[in-house]
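Q: what sequence does this backbone want?
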């Protein structure tokens, strides 16, 4: 196979890339697992386009987890997610939502496959370390809760052609 020409390597990707919101939850930060968790997404081939450390307010937590309002675990979920600092990130890539959720593993860590973040580091559903958007539409809404448009950086990764065929 011919090597890619220089002009091809410098062309921005034409395929629309999906974005997903990832949170390292307070237990991930408290346990010193933030670097390990971030490395999983980075090594997978997702591209980091936004990141910040913050402590979520009740208001932000209720907006982020609005779909769970009324469920028995809602109040404890809001208390958990606001209990300490989190790292919020936007990762980009082909089918980024599905790729990130596969990397994260099932909601209940005991059921999560070893090799996933929750399967390697988690024991209980109420301490499952990381959040990932569950759809493209959901990701768009969630990203807007945490980041202003100008905080999401559009950049070309030099080795993209070794991660993506497009
Ligand atoms: P997900 O994080 O895998 O998308 P969701 O069903 O959207 O899972 O639930 C959001 C979060 O709510 C979970 O990650 C977990 O922290 C918490 N949660 C979900 N179900 C329960 C439960 O039954 N007990 C306690 N916490 C729960
Ligand atoms: Mg969810």
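A:
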């Amino acid at each position: 196979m011919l090597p890619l020409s220089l002009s091809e390597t410098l062309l921005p990707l034409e395929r629309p890339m999906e974005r997903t919101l990832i949170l390292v939850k307070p237990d991930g930060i408290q346990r010193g697992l933030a670097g390990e968790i971030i490395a999983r997404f980075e090594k997978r081939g997702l591209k980091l386009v936004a990141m910040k450390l913050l402590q979520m307010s009740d208001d932000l937590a209720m907006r982020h987890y609005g779909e769970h309002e009324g469920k028995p675990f809602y109040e404890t979920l809001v208390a958990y997610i606001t209990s300490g600092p989190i790292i919020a990130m936007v990762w980009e890539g082909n089918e980024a939502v599905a790729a990130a959720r596969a990397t994260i593993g099932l909601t209940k860590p005991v059921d999560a496959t070893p090799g996933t973040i929750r399967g390697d580091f988690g024991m209980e559903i109420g301490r499952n370390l990381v959040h990932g958007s569950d759809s493209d539409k959901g990701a768009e809404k969630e990203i807007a809760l945490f980041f202003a448009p100008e905080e999401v950086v559009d950049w070309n990764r030099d080795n993209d052609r070794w991660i993506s065929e497009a």
